[in-house]
Design a protein that fits this description.
Blueprint lengths: L11 H18 L5 H13 L3 H7 L9 H9 L10 E10 L2 E6 L2 E7 L2 E2 L13 H13 L5 E5 L11 E6 L9 H7 L1 H7 L4 E2 L9 H9 L2
Length: 219
């Protein structure tokens, strides 16, 4: 009896990509946001990798550094901080303008408000770009699990996808921040200044629209 040739097993990285594409397509048919499902799939597959495999899967051309440490010198001399800011801990970076943080003992998806980075993890691969991957890898290299950040908000707390819309500060935010402080202390402004994101305002959340546009103009 002729022995059947076993089908080749797909690599875990390929399995993960295929599953994300399939689940995202199914949820899209029902008009359901697929991002929470993508987070679950990523966490499930990553938890099963060895340390070496996990490091390889998330290898980056950017060397690890600290965005928070880079911001600290610019926070010296601040007299009054915004008492309304909410402290959170970074869990992971999703892409160039989205984070997962722990806020009030809950896991929260944060969309950096007022800016937009190119796509890097969209289910439709044609929408992803090298610029998007660079923005994502840069943020992953500079912001790490357990880092403390501070959140302030605009008119709306959430978008239609139930993502929390926030200005993410790398140090306790000053009251009535100047453009220089926004450029160096607020992650949204830092990414615009460094060229990894561009200003993109969605009404009514336009508190720092003018500052972001000015930072982009002079970078």
């Amino acid at each position: 009896m002729k022995q059947k040739t076993p089908l080749p097993r797909l690599k875990k990285k390929t399995q993960k990509k295929l599953l994300i594409i399939i689940i995202s397509a199914i949820l899209a048919l029902f008009g359901i946001n697929s991002e929470p499902a993508q987070d679950f799939i990523n966490a499930y597959f990553d938890s099963g990798l060895t340390a070496a495999q996990n490091a390889d899967a998330h290898s980056s051309t950017y060397k690890s550094f600290s965005l928070i440490d880079e911001a600290k010198p610019y926070a010296q001399g601040i007299q009054k901080t915004d008492k309304a800011a909410e402290k959170a801990q970074v869990i992971r970076v999703v892409d160039g303008d989205t984070l997962i943080v722990r806020l009030n003992k809950e896991q929260v998806r944060i969309r950096l408000i007022g800016i937009d980075a190119p796509e890097s993890v969209h289910p439709d691969a044609t929408r992803n770009s090298t610029q998007g991957k660079n923005a994502s890898e840069h943020l992953k290299a500079g912001l790490h699990k357990g880092d403390t950040v501070y959140l302030t908000f605009d008119k709306e707390r959430e978008d239609k996808y139930k993502r929390t819309l926030a200005y993410v500060w790398l140090t306790p935010p000053p009251q009535d921040p100047t453009e220089e402080e926004i450029k160096h202390l607020m992650l949204n402004g830092v990414l615009v200044d460094q060229g990894f994101a561009n200003p993109k305002a969605f009404k009514p959340n336009t508190l720092y629209k003018t500052s972001f546009e000015s930072i982009a103009k002079h970078r």
